[in-house]
Every structure is written in C-alpha cells, then in structure tokens.
Amino acid sequence: MDFFYMLMPISGVTIFWPGLIILGIGVGIIGGFFGMGGAWMVTPGLNILGFPMAFAIGTDIAHMAGKSLVSTMRHGKFGNVDYKLGIVMLVGTIVGFEIGAQMIMWFERIGKVELYVRWLYVGLLTFIAWMVFHDVAKRKEKERAAKAAGQEIDKLATGIEWHKTVHKIKIPPMMHFNQAGFTCSIWAPVFVSFMTGWLAGILGIGGGLIRMPALIYFIGCPTHVAVGTDLFEVMISGLYGAGTYTYKGRTELVAAVIMLIGAAMGAQVGTVATKYIKGYGIRIAFGIAVLGCMASIIMKLLPRYIDGIKAFMDDLSTATVLIVVSSLSLYIFVKMLQGARREIAMKNGKA
Fold first, then answer.
1. Residue (of 331, 333, 187, 346) closest to 270 by Cα position
2. Could you give the CA distance from residue 78 to residue 137 in angstroms, rounded to a whole number?
3. pLDDT value of residue 55
4. What is the pLDDT of residues 197-249, one digit of tens each?
5. Torsion angle of the four alpha carbons 321, 323, 329, 331, in this order, in degrees rounded to the nearest 10
6. Cis peptide bond prior to 189, omega within 30° of 0
7. With bands split at pLDDT 50, 70 and 90, how would you rate the model's confidence at 176?
8. H helix intervals, the chain
9. Dist CA 332 CA 335 (whole Å)
10. DSSP 3-state of 133
11. How far apart are CA 189 and CA 84, in angstroms?
C-alpha cells in the first residue's frame, strides 16, 4: 500500500495521492458547474487527507487559479461573464484577501488555525445551506400561489429577493451592468467583494462559495451570469492568493500540479453542463454539496470533544469528502450527457 502514498517535499507530510486526483477531477467538474474554484471542498479535503491547514489553504489557492482560468474562458464563450462587474469587484477582493491571509498567519503563530478555520467553515456552510434551501422553499411557495391564481411565475424570479433592497441604495456613482441586466450603486459590489475576499483569505477559497450566492441574492445577478462572473473573479483572486501564500512558504506545489491536471479536464465538463442545467437545478445541487462538506468537517472536529474516536472519524470524514465530490461530479456528468443527447436529437429532428 506504500505505492499509494507520496511524501510532499515542502510540508513534509505523506499524502494518499489518489485522493488528490479524485479531488482535482471532481472539483474541476463541480467548480466549472457552480462557478467557483471549489476550494470550499478542497481546503477541508486537503486538511482531511493530511495537510496542515495553512498548507491546505495555500496549496488549494495555487491549483484553483489555473483551473478557474480554463472555466472562465469557456463561460465567456457562452456569454455568462459580466467583465465590467468582475473588474469593479477586483479592488475589494484583493484588499479583503490580504487582510484574511495576514489573519491566518497570526492564527498559525498562536496555534489556533486548525480549530478556528474549521469552526468558521461550519458556521459559514450552515448559513449558506440555509440560504439556498430557504430560497428554494420560498420559490416553490410563489409557484403554488401563482398556480392557484391561474398565473405563470417569471422564470427569472427568485424566492429570496434581498437584492431589491440593495438596489434601493442610491449612493453615487451608479453603474449599469449589461450582461447581468441591472443598475446599482458601485459600492454594493465593492462591499460584497471585500467581504468575500476577506473570507477567502481566511478559508483558502477563491471566494466563490460566498460570492456566487452573494451575486444572486444581494446583487441580483441571474444564476448563469453569477456563475461565469464569479469564476472570472475567482481567477483573479486565485492568482493573487497563489502569489502571496507561495511567498509566505505555505504552498505545496507538487500537490497543486497533481490536482490541476485533473481539474483542467473536469472544468470543461462542468462548464458545458451549465448549458443543460439552469437556475434552481444548480442551486439545489449546490446546497446538497455544501451539506456534505459541512458534515465531513464536523466529523473532523468531534475527536476534540469525544475520546477514542479520532482514527474512525478521520477515515469517515475522508470517505465523506471523496464520496460527495465523486457523486456530485457523476451527477453533473450524466446530466451533461443527457442534455447533449436531447440537443443532438432536436437538431436531427429539424434536419
């Protein structure tokens, strides 16, 4: 079994390398589909596989930057990227990211990085899962009300409409975003990008975990535009983050390269799948993935409070992450094939 383990030269830990490949391919598919780097799964996944948390953060950011570049190019061809909105958010993202990265270095110095980051992940994932499923429930409620009234609900309508409150803020300058299809104060996306950048620096994510739902619920982007624009932003923050964490000596480049090879292929599948799975199909799958990831982190935390279960919980949390990534990737891949077949059949029927 020694063949399946590899010594990482910078961090000095021995890693189950097939796990890196599964994470790379799976998160490439998931990242391209959800419009995020997938680090919300990979950072805890790398930590569960054996990387110290600071190295898990830095390594994932390095692999994420290249993968997001591939996905952004694909989404740009489908018209899913609002480049103006992404550029406006850039300043807030970089400033917030650097503040978060400096906080991680401080947590590491006081020996609390593992505990603090894991609990922050649990809290954040809990909130996001609630937000996604609350939105789905509210949308279904609107559909039932419209059906009872003999009406048809707008396909772009959402359950949660916090963005309408944000759009009432008229602090100048105001800006119109053509691809996203709305006008708002420029300070709204700047503030959102600062907060997501800060969380990205602490958690080792490109910010997509927070930014994609924030673009939908707080800014008012259609889901497919939020996916593409978020990937553009993830690419920028990932390139910056890879540089700053490598400079701080917390990036395991060997692991990053292994994952990037698989992720580059997976990203092509995930991006194409967004042609066939729209709106609430994406959101429900996203919510399920968040719950699975949250469960694996809680399993990793339990041995701190219950004696004698560490070895079992370590194995169970590793299996949970890999099963969630593999199952969701398979679901997206199958849906892509089904959608492609329907599209080909329609074209042949017209011919």
1. 333
2. 29
3. 82
4. 887 777 655 556 677 778 888 888 887 788 788 878 777 767 777 777 777 77
5. -140
6. no
7. confident
8. 17-34, 39-49, 53-77, 83-88, 90-109, 113-148, 162-167, 187-203, 208-214, 223-247, 253-273, 280-301, 310-350
9. 5
10. helix
11. 11
Predicted TM-score of the model (pTM)? 0.58
Residues 6+ apart with CB under 8 A from 316: 299
Mean of all residue pLDDT scores within the chain: 78
**Under 8 Å between Cβ of 316 and 298:** no
Dihedral sign from CA coordinates of 110, 8, 270, 290: negative
Q: Which residue has the tokens 């390594």?
A: 59
d(C-alpha 86, C-alpha 177), whole Å? 10
What are the tokens at 284?
């429900």
Map out the domains of the chain as residue ranges: 2-350
Angle at CA of residue 287, ends 25 and 202, nearest 5°: 70
Rounded mean pLDDT, 65-90: 78
Preceding peptide of 18 cis, ω within 30°: no
- pLDDT at position 130: 84
Q: Are 6 and 14 in contact (CB under 8 A)?
A: yes
Report the phi/psi class of residue 309: left, alpha or beta, with left for phi > 0 and alpha for psi in -120 to 50.
alpha
Length of the chain: 351
Average pLDDT of span 281-297 = 75
Could you tell me how far CA 148 lies from the centroid of its own chain? 37
Q: Are 237 and 97 in contact (CB under 8 A)?
A: yes
pLDDT tens by residue, 264-282 = 777 778 777 777 766 566 6
pLDDT band at 156 (very low <50, low <70, confident <90, very high): low
